[in-house]
Structure formats: C-alpha cells, structure tokens
Specification:
The protein has 167 residues and is mainly alpha-helical. It contains 5 helices and no strands. The radius of gyration is 30 Å and the shape is elongated.
Length: 167
C-alpha cells in the first residue's frame, strides 16, 4: 500500500512540474521580448475581432429616437388601455379588445427584439442571432393571427382574463 502512495506522489509531482514549466514558458518569452516591442496605450488592438467598434447604422425613422419614443408611448398607453378594457366589457367594445391584444403582442415583440439585439449580435453569433430574430418575427405573426382568431371567433382577450380572474 505504501509503494502505491509513493508512486502516486511521484507521478503527481512530475505532472505538476510539467504543468508549471508549460505555464511559465510564455512569461519567459514575454519578458525577453518586452524590451523589443513598443508600448501601446490601452493594449494591442486586433482588427476583425470583438475589439472593432460597432459601425453606426444609417439614419432611419424606424430606429433610434423615434423607435425609443414609440416604445415608451406604447408602454405608457398599455396602463390606461388595460384599465379601460377591464372596466368595460370586451364584447361591448371589440375594437378596444383588439387594440389591447395587438398592443400587448407588439410590446412583447419589441422587448424580446431588444434582448436579441443586445445579447445575440449577428457579428458575434452569425448564425444564431439572425435565426432567432426571424423565429421571433414568425412567432409574433403567429400570435397576432391567434389573437385575431380568438377575438373574432371566441370570447375575446378581456373576457377570458375576467373569467379566469373570477374562477
């Protein structure tokens, strides 16, 4: 039993020494070459990587400050619209029920789209980012069709929530 422990300890010592030699080798090379290269403030800049700045998009009325203002207006209008939809009956005011359904879907779409834009940028995720963006668009269209079908052929969104609330 003691010979196995001695062999294991010797093996671990040899492995640790090899790992230490490999990990310290870049430091030795860097120390020798440090005097040869000039200092670059902020570190080296590699072209074609995540260090590149994001290009400015062309001006558009559907993005930027107009887009931001529309998102805030939509979010602020959801509060009185929701209250109005629940004070009145959805069967008496089907237009209000439809506007509430479309506004909720658009509010959700804009929020999820911002998550995709912020965290799955096409430059970093060239396949996954555009795929999920188109998946979100297709899902939004499907939900809008479902909301339309539900509001026209069934009891409507506000009646459903009122029934679920009182159940």
């Amino acid at each position: 039993m003691s010979s196995a422990l001695v062999a294991r300890a010797a093996f671990n010592r040899n492995v640790a020494a090899a790992i230490a030699r490999r990990s310290l080798r870049p430091l030795a090379v860097q120390a020798r070459g440090a005097a040869d290269s000039a200092y670059v403030p902020g570190g080296p800049i590699y072209r074609g990587t995540v260090n590149d700045p994001t290009p400015f998009p062309p001006p558009s009325k559907t993005h930027g400050s107009y887009h931001w203002a529309f998102e805030r207006l939509l979010s602020a209008s959801l509060v009185p619209m929701t209250v109005a939809a629940f004070v009145t009956s959805g069967t008496n005011y089907p237009v209000l029920d439809g506007i509430l359904g479309v506004s909720l879907v658009m509010h959700s779409h804009l929020g999820f789209d911002q998550v995709l834009v912020d965290y799955l940028h096409p430059r970093k995720f060239p396949l996954l980012g555009p795929f999920l963006t188109w998946t979100l668009r297709a899902t939004t269209v499907g939900v809008l069709v479902g909301i339309y079908q539900f509001n026209t052929n069934d009891i409507g969104l506000t009646e459903l929530i009122a029934k679920a609330w009182h159940a």
